[in-house]
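FORM 7B: Structural annotation worksheet

SECTION A. Query
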Amino acid sequence: MEDEFHVHGSHEHEVEHRASHGVSLAQQIAVFTAVLASVGAIVSYLGSNAQNEALFHKNEAVLYKAHASDQWSYYQAKSMKGNLVSIAQDLSTGSTKEKYHNEIARYEKEKADIKAKAEALEAKSEAENKLAEESFHPHHYLARAMTFLQIAIALASVTALTNRKWLLIPTAVGAAIGITLAFLAYL
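SECTION B. Predicted structure
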């Protein structure tokens, strides 16, 4: 039998050395950065969703306001016609006066219906505006949260590049502030 002789290469030596000393700082920071990036993606999605929902409600508010404006214009037109009929009644005599009286009553009833519809549309517009404000509220917190998460990711990168462990403190603080702001967005 031949004696087998095995020469350890520098790569094998490094692998054995790292295995005996545990996970390196760079690997820990890489995992931490990946977790922060995942949290950041969720926060970004929630912020975009809040913004889209607010825009939807704002658009609905504008549409209801436009319909209400149309109804108020219609109300004004009925008022003007009613006023013209009232003038015609004042200038008429006999049976024609009774006909105009019935016309005035019809215009008053139509105006009341139109007014009620316009006021209902305005109420819907106000409700949608309120929903838009409530929907947009989390966006401010989520935008700040995303900023702190991005700062934490940047600090983690600097920590890995410089191998300065003390930079983990501001990195963790930035991440904690970002995550806290994301939770506060929905309280």
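SECTION C. Observations
The chain has one domain: 26-184. The CA atoms of residues 159 and 165 lie 7 Å apart.

SECTION D. Sign-off
Analyst initials: ____
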